[in-house]
Design brief:
Elements: H1 31-41, E1 49-57, E2 60-67, E3 73-74, E4 83-85, E5 91-94, E6 113-117, E7 122-127
Antiparallel strand pairs: 1-2, 2-3, 4-5, 5-6, 6-7
Length: 130
């Protein structure tokens, strides 16, 4: 995961006491999972955000991105093979290759994709990472 061009400064911020789900598509449907993830993980993505995810069926993962400064909860990018991200980067890899760098190129839904977090939404920048 070479993402030096997407590096951000990590801030040491305590999680907010309340979360604002007004921008989140599922509103409070995943309130407990999101709140628990923020409490346990704190800042783990893009400098001052918490990226939390959980299973939503096999194979399926859903996530939320929480701004630890404001408490706002933002929408997600669904995954079928997990996520790869760092606390000092705004780059997100959805359906990352396995530890050997392999993925099934014949199954479109599982191909790796890269997204950039703008602070409010994800923008897809690349598919089928090699």
């Amino acid at each position: 995961m070479d993402d030096s061009s997407h590096a951000v400064l990590v801030r040491d911020i305590k999680p907010p006491k309340t979360l604002d789900f007004s921008n989140y598509e599922f509103k409070k449907m995943y309130f407990t999972a999101t709140k628990k993830g923020v409490k346990e993980q704190g800042v783990n993505f893009a400098g001052h955000f918490c990226f939390v995810y959980w299973g939503c069926g096999s194979p399926c993962s859903i996530c939320a991105v929480v701004d630890i400064q404001s408490g706002k909860v933002y929408n997600w990018v669904n995954s079928e093979m997990g996520y790869q991200f760092k606390k000092d980067s705004k780059l997100l890899i959805v359906n990352p290759p396995d530890s050997s760098g392999l993925y099934d190129k014949n199954i479109v839904r599982e191909q790796p994709s890269q997204y950039i977090w703008t602070g409010k939404i994800f923008i897809k920048i690349k598919s089928s990472i090699s």
